[in-house]
What does this fold into?
Amino acid sequence: MQDNVGFNTLICTPVVIACPDKLQTTLRGEGGIKALLGMVRCGHPDVLAQVARGIANFAKCESRASSQGTKAGRSLLIDDGALPWIVQNANNEASPIRRHIELALCHLAQHEVNAKDMISGGALWELVRISRDCSREDIRTLANRTLISSPTFQAELRRLRIEC
It folds into this structure.
């Protein structure tokens, strides 16, 4: 897992094709999420897009596992410190990065156990922005549906007097 090419293949290809819990656990256990975050330091747009894609795929797989009842608890992405980078890049000027990150936020937000961390991490504002301004209707609809379905997000939006 030390060479970037092998790591990139490991994180992107298998996660897109299938979402085995064992692979996710292995990636986390071997520092895969933190390694992804470390790769962003180079700042190259292609690398950032691939990291964003890997994070979006990971979030999607976690979301699917949670919905199927095979995963409980907070997202490993949140546990491993990816949320600040995700929030920071949610409105990235490069559309491939932005779209992947917008999807990752929506997938993370679909699970109530992540809501408080997302609020404290600034992700709620990005979800509201996505639900209003995203150029892709499917992502905009997903963000809106996610905000509406979360009691925690709804309570915070009421507290802040923000309409969705």
